[in-house]
Amino acid sequence: MKAIFKYRICFFFGVILLLNNLTIGQQLPIFSQYLLNDYAYNPAVAGSKDYYDVKSNHRYQWVGITDAPRTYTLSINGPSKNKKQGFGGLLYTDHVGPTRRTGFQASYTYHINLNDEIRLGMALSAGLLEWKLDGHKIELYDLSDQVLVNNVMRSIVPDAKFGFMVYHEKWYVGGSVPNLLASQLSFSNTTNTGLSKLKPHYYLNGGYIFDINSDFTIEPSCMIKLVSPAPVQLDIMTRVVWKKQLWLGLAYRTMDAASAMLGYLFKQNILIGYSYDFTTSNLRNYSSGTHELMFGVRFVRSKTFEAPSLE
Description:
With 311 residues, the chain is mostly beta strands. The protein has helices spanning 9-18, 38-41, and strands at 51-60, 70-79, 85-96, 99-113, 119-134, 152-167, 171-177, 202-208, 210-211, 216-226, 233-242, 246-253, 257-266, 270-279, 290-300. Strands 1-2-3-4-5-6-7-8-10-11-12-13-14-15 form a 14-stranded antiparallel barrel. It is globular.
């Protein structure tokens, strides 16, 4: 390709992935409030709680950098009447400059009792994913390059995710594998052969609830993210929760950012959470940080066994 693109950090990564047939680093968005946005990471969460959970998450990453990522999710999940099954759905869109990733998935989870206090949930979700590159948003020095000028290139592929979770009233351990099908991206309106593939990611996470007294709990958690050839990334979070309503938290993500967060659960039904990321990588010289806002509503069905979760 003859085109020389103007300096745009996020666009650079998107073009490398989609046009140069290389797969570098993580392809999926990240969330600082992963403990609240748990279903987006792991479909096995569906059915582990006593209510249907609707959540919307908005993430504005690396504020101050042109074409920085913006991610939006909308999800719903909940149990069947007999509490042995869970159902859920997820809509999401991830914008990075002229590139956009949009998709949906529906999931099914089956829960079994390992003993009187511990349960296991295993889930599979499936759907469609669209990768889009909008040539109208790209400024070229070489206007004779017709590969991208005034072109909108799309690739729609099937997508799937596997997840599991072992959980108790006070703790949980789980994992998931997004991009399970490793689908190949191809663009029919160009000569590009679409050798780029979606790389399977591997997420492992866990957490524990420590009761300090009748009012306060401390909830440490962590998540490990693996995808070749990127380095392993570790998220560590600790929240202090007052009366299961108000919480403050601190988190750290290796090679990326430290986060501060707070949230409130109103009348056990309406949740709002906010986090701010202090960038620790070299991008801190160009970005003022990352904002993430979450809204949630839950619809309680009955009071039975409940997974260890604040919301």
